[in-house]
Amino acid sequence: RFVMVGCGPFPAAALFIHDHTTVPEIVALDRDPHAIAMARRMVAAFAPERVEVREGDGSRFDYAGADIVYVANHVSPKARILTRIADCTGPS
């Protein structure tokens, strides 16, 4: 499971993972409803079978089961999001 936090209107990282890996579940997460709407259209056009765009706050999202979490540089509050990721995924 790959989770991208802060996918924005064009979830390029999620689409790249889709095109270049066999990861079965790819989640593109954002909290902006306008970005979500556009990202859903992009995913429907390019990668509907394994990518899911979800609306959510990265500091509250359940990352359990994620193998890789990619946090976009512009995402904030980054410290709270990173703490949440650590709390949900635990030591490897």
Question: Can you tell me about this structure?
Answer:
The longest helix has 14 residues, at 33-46. The mean pLDDT is 95. The chain has 92 residues and is an alpha/beta fold. It is built from three helices and four strands. β2 (26-30), α2 (33-46) and β3 (51-55) form a beta-alpha-beta unit. Strands 3-2-1-4 form a four-stranded parallel beta sheet, with helices on one face. The protein has helices spanning 12-20, 33-46, 78-89; strands at 2-5, 26-30, 51-55, 68-71.
Summarize the structure.
The protein has 92 residues and is of the alpha/beta class. It contains 3 helices and 4 strands; from the N terminus they run E-H-E-H-E-E-H.
Cα-atom Rg, whole angstroms?
12 Å
Q: Uncertain spans, ≥5 residues at pLDDT below 50? A: none
Mean pLDDT, all residues: 95
Number of helices: 3
Task: Report the span from N to C terminus.
Answer: 15 Å
Strand order of the largest sheet: 3-2-1-4
What is the string of SSEs from the N terminus onward?
Answer: EHEHEEH
Strand content: 15-25%
**Shape label:** globular
Largest sheet: 4 strands, parallel
The total strand number stands at: 4
Q: What portion of residues is helical?
A: 25-40%
Structural class determined from secondary elements: alpha/beta
